[in-house]
Structure formats: structure tokens, C-alpha cells
Amino acid sequence: MKVCLVFPRFKYKSGDPPLGLAYIASALKKNNIKTSILDTTFNPSFDYVESYLKQQKPDIIGIYMDTLMFNDALKVIKIAKKIGIFTIAGGPHPTILPQTLIKYVDIVVRGEGEATITKIIKNIQNPKNLKKIKGIWYKKNGRIIKNPPREPTKNIDKIEFPARELLDIESYIENWHYLDSIDPKLRGTNIVASRGCPYHCTHCQPTLNAIFGIKLRKRDAKKIIEEIKQIKKNYSIDAVFFHDDTLTIDKGWVEDFCGLLKKENLNLVWACNARINTVDEKLMKEMYSAGLRGLHLGIESGSQRILDNIYRKEIDLKEVKDVINTAKKTGIHTLCFFMIGAPTETKKEINQTIKFACSLKCDEVSFSITSPLLC
Predict the structure, then answer these.
(1) Structure pTM?
(2) Within its chain, how far is the Cα of 163 from the centroid?
(3) DSSP 3-state assignment of 173?
(4) Which of 42, 43, 178, 371 could lock onto 241 through a cystine, CB 3.0 to 4.6 A?
């Protein structure tokens, strides 16, 4: 049985490798399942997809998709079906809207995929066993079977490190931009230390909870150090970005990690996503001493009404400037994210957001248009 995992990114190059698929690939490889990854980030061509699948001849493809990838993913699925390949879809979009996909694919995976896809592959030759696999929708005799959801993996330390060797990591490193404002010459890549977020921001939920559950699950800090050592050795990187939704929720964990990082003397520059209400001067100083040089902070709006009533952000604008100023004083670069055009947002509130962003001493700002994704 040969499996090909597909990441259908056709519209732009990126320095952000698809670690989710790489984690699934590791789980399959651990179970002695022949696995490859077809990533179109640097080969954005449907001819390339067809040629690759005909050459590799996988029995099954597992295709990742978010809503922005939906139409391109359907084209890949059509190619696979024409060749006669069994198709599985997973990721944020299939998790939230499986009904939009089940007519196109054989199985839809909802939620975390490592254990689910492994069980599918092991039981694919005996379709009767599919009814026992949680977290999937599939078709049987023209009917759609909706199995109950799967609980997230409790101990994520049991999940193997992502199979980066199946990706074009060098191209990802060349396009990596997360710490460019600090030093564009840094060789870096992304890493994940936890899954989930206990907050309820409407621009993330309910998708985040549906994929990862409502509880934050952290990897052991020692395992993170081990993974960093591995990627430093294999790819000669000197920087990483923690792609966790919010790395700084558990301050005790962060302090332990920083202590280990300093003890190992890895000479690593790093940055992470954080929230205004999860960092303080003491923590920032500790993180800086361990190599932190960048914080990405979601502020979203300069209107407290929008933050409270629309985004449910659970932060106070009065705290923002103090946190940014403390980061500046500590030597940490800050990138602040803002969204404009929220439902009911007025022109006055949009201008309020722009003025608020301009008043901050952050190093970078990013503005996005608030956009509902429909399918």
C-alpha cells in the first residue's frame, strides 16, 4: 500500500512548510506504510500533479485543504480519480464543512489526522472496519456514513517529529521570512510546541476547537529541544518560529523551556505568536535571555467595542501600549496584526484602528480585510 499526501498550494510561494502533513507522514512511516508528500508550493502546476501521481502510482492520496485551497484541491481530486486513486480529504475545511466534500472523495477526515489516517490505511481492504474508525465520513451503498468525532491525542509527545525529509526544506528555508525584520540573513524554519488554544476569538473559532479540542496540549520542553537539535543538524538553521496559536499561555512551561534552551547553548534566534495578556516584563526578559527576538501579537482592532462584541478577543486596549513598550525596552521586535471591516464596524472605528496602530512603537504592523470564507 502506497500513500501520497498532497498539499495543494498553487497561488504563492511560502517559507511555511506544511508541518501538519509532515506529522501525518511520520505516523504512517512509523507503521511501515510507504509514504510520499506531493507539495505544489514550488511546482504550482496541475500537469506536475498528474505527472507525479502517474509516476509514483500511489494507491491512496490524502489531501489537505483549508477553504482557500478548496477549488484547487478539487482539481487535484479530479486528477486522482481519473487515474483511479482512492481519495481522502482532511484539514480545516473538511473538519468544519465535510458535507461540501463527501460527494467528491471516498473519505473525509475530521480533526487531527495522525491516528485516523493510520487506521484508515490499515483497514482500507476491509471496508466493514471503517464503521469503527472515529472522526470520518464515508460512503456505503450510496449512503453517507457519519462516524462520531475522534478525541484529540492526549499526549502529543507520542507523535513522531514531522517528516521534514519528505519536503523541499531548502526551498522553504530560502523563502522563510518570519524573522526578516530582525535579520534577513537568518536560516530558519517553523516548529510547533503545542496544540489548541483556550480563547474564543471568533476569527479562529469554532475551527480551532473542532481540530484540536478545547484544551491546550503542550509537548515536553525536552522534546522541543531534541527536535531543534535535529533540524539544526540536518538543515544548518540558526532560527525558528514557533507556529503555535499562542506559545505563551503557560508561563511556567515557557520558563522551563527557556532554561533548557540556555543550558543547551544552542545559539538559536527565535520568535513566536503571543497575546497581550499572556506576556509581562519578567517573562519577556527570560525569553530574551534564551534567544527570543520577535513577538507576533494579534491586536485586531483599535475599538474596544469591536474587540469585545465582534471578535471576543478578551484583551484590553489599555494594556497594549505598555506591553509593546516593554518589548521594545527589552530588545524584542513586535509585529502587530490588525483586521478592518468587521461586521457593524463603522468608518470612524476603522480610522480609530489605523490611528491606534500608528501610535504604537511596534516594529511592524499587518492589516487584513476581515473576510468570511464561504463555500
Answers:
(1) 0.95
(2) 15
(3) helix
(4) 178
C-alpha–C-alpha distance, residues 270 and 333, integer Å: 11
CB 98 within 8 A of CB 109: no
Whole-number Cα distances in Å, 4 to 28, 34, 35, 49, 69 = 11, 8, 6, 11, 18
What does the pLDDT look like over 68-104, one tens digit per residue?
A: 999 999 999 999 999 999 999 999 999 999 999 999 9
Angle formed by the axes of helices 281-289 and 317-330, nearest 10°: 30
**Which is it for strands 136-140 and 143-146: parallel, antiparallel or unpaired?**
antiparallel
Amino acid at 260: L
Alpha-carbon span 191 to 230, nearest angstrom? 12
C-alpha cell at 76: 487535484
| Burial of 140 per CB tally in 10 Å (0-12, 13-18, 19+) | exposed
The DSSP result for 268-333, as a single string, is -EEEEEE-GGG--HHHHHHHHHTTEEEEEEEEE-S-HHIIIIIS-----HHHHHHHHHHHHHHT-E
